């Protein structure tokens, strides 16, 4: 793929947490616009850390991270707000406001575009109210517009979280173990939603997944982490199931022994 289509670039990225734990080590990685990348690896491999450096939920401690060719490492104030608007994120535990309605939760995805006082009073424009309806339609949740979030199933809540992230009009969607709390049926619905926004809206998706078979079904590229290092990176056409036997058994071996993290 051409270098012009590089959207996210990790250049020798390091992340050491304040307590000394190494989260990421020498990561060199280019993600292209429109890719659906699955990040696999055992627990503690650094998958969440990798995702969270992209929206600066975690600051890196070495190297550089670029989005659209610009280093985001020193972003503050307006630049940081703009970065966070352009990067949507969903989480394993959904992170919704349970006692509020679906509509209110989805509209809250738009707060990055409002002054604090307007959003705290719920003064959203007609255009944004329509945007919320459209986002909910996309994930088949419009009928729940006025339902309280705590009356929804896990899968429905994750779909609301996707709609909320879509309100930001993101270029990038980070999905941190998006289906880890869901049953197989709702897993398919949520993964199909992510695939839809990748293929239909052109949003670049990075999803941390424990399931290799889901990674193979949905992603067009798989990267593997172990002990904070990038140990695997292949387009889906070149991936074989044996690769994962290798990666996971090797990981298990190393985790039991030499490598910290
Ligand atoms: N806030 C933190 N402070 C210190 N260490 C942390 C922090 N967050 C994560 N770590 C450590 O960094 C390493 C990578 O963690 P990370 O959560 O990125 O892994 P992961 O692959 O996403 O794991 P999981 O699948 O369990 O979520 C682990 O050793 C973890 O304990």
From TrEMBL:
Residue stretches making up the ABC transporter domain: 8-252
SMART domains hit by this protein: AAA (SM00382)
Coiled coil spans: none
Molecular function GO terms recorded: ATP binding
Keywords: ATP-binding, Cell membrane, Membrane, Nucleotide-binding, Phosphonate transport, Translocase, Transport
Superkingdom classification of source: Bacteria
Keyword match Ribosomal protein: no
PANTHER family: AMINO ACID IMPORT ATP-BINDING PROTEIN, PHOSPHONATES IMPORT ATP-BINDING PROTEIN PHNC
NCBIfam families reported for this sequence: ABC_phnC (TIGR02315)
Name assigned to this protein: Phosphonates import ATP-binding protein PhnC
């Amino acid at each position: 793929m051409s270098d012009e289509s590089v959207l996210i670039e990790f250049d020798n990225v390091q992340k050491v947490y304040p307590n000394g734990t190494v989260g990421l080590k020498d990561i060199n990685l280019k993600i292209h616009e429109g890719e659906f990348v699955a990040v696999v690896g055992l627990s503690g491999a650094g998958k969440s850390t990798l995702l969270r450096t992209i929206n600066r939920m975690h600051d890196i401690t070495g190297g550089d991270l670029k989005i659209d060719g610009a280093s985001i490492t020193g972003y503050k104030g307006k630049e940081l707000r703009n970065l966070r608007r352009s990067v949507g994120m969903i989480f394993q535990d959904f992170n919704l406001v349970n006692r509020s309605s679906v509509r209110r939760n989805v509209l809250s995805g738009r707060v990055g575009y409002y002054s604090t006082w307007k959003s705290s009073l719920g003064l959203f424009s007609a255009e944004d109210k329509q945007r919320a309806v459209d986002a909910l339609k996309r994930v088949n949740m419009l009928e729940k517009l006025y339902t309280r979030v705590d009356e929804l199933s896990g899968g429905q809540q994750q779909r609301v979280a996707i709609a909320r992230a879509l309100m930001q009009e993101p270029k990038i969607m980070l999905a941190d173990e998006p289906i880890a709390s869901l049953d197989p049926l709702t897993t398919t619905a949520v993964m199909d939603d992510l695939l839809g926004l990748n293929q239909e809206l052109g949003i670049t998706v990075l999803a941390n997944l424990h399931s290799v078979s889901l990674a193979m079904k949905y992603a067009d590229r798989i990267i593997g982490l172990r002990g904070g290092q990038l140990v695997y990176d292949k387009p889906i056409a070149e991936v074989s199931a044996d690769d994962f036997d290798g990666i996971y058994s090797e990981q298990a071996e190393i985790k039991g022994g030499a490598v910290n993290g």
